[in-house]
Specification:
Largest sheet of chain A: 5 strands, antiparallel
Strand order of the largest sheet of chain A: 2-3-9-4-7
Number of strands of chain A: 9
Oligomer: homodimer
Order of helices and strands of chain A: EEEEEEEEE
Largest interface: A-B, 34 and 34 residues
Distance between the termini of chain A: 38 Å
Mean pLDDT of chain A: 95
Helix content of chain A: under 10%
Shape of chain A: globular
Chain lengths: ~110, ~110
Amino acid sequence: MANQNLYAGLPSAPETDERFDALLTKPGLRIERIISTGQSSPPGFWCDQQEAEWVILLQGAAGLWFAGEDEVRELNPGDWLYIAPHRRHRVEWTEPQTATVWLALYFNET
Amino acid sequence: MANQNLYAGLPSAPETDERFDALLTKPGLRIERIISTGQSSPPGFWCDQQEAEWVILLQGAAGLWFAGEDEVRELNPGDWLYIAPHRRHRVEWTEPQTATVWLALYFNET
């Protein structure tokens, strides 16, 4: 039986939009693969989520900026973090030439 | 600020026991890093969990056997699967010479 692989079907060239693939969807819980190829948050946009998020970058690299922090955090393969609901953040940059692969878990925090 | 990295502190030589590190613990939800260095399930033992599990192998390799299946599934980096509660399975083998890194998510399935 063939396995499902997180690195299957990655784009070989930059794409216009990020890709979001739901890997598992359960009540109050969602696992997504996100593939970026150079995208970033629009100028002035802050991501402000109702759900909690746990995210790990597994390939590529990205810069993440949290509101109130002085510096953009650089994420490299294996780096993970927990983002509390409504903790505002932006993706400042992702690598333009290679696919950046994120594994993100969204859940309702009680 | 230093990031937390999934590949930090991996053993450089085989260890007696697998390592289990909780990365996030929330009500009804637990994210664990598991590091295997050649361990497998004891003979005749089947893992039968009350919680649902979503697991991805990110480094190394392993053989997973599900009760009722004819063949052991070989997992390689990026391979992921969902294991329903009480779906019996065994780890038949993990690579003896390199650290096998798993990211496992356990949750209550309602």
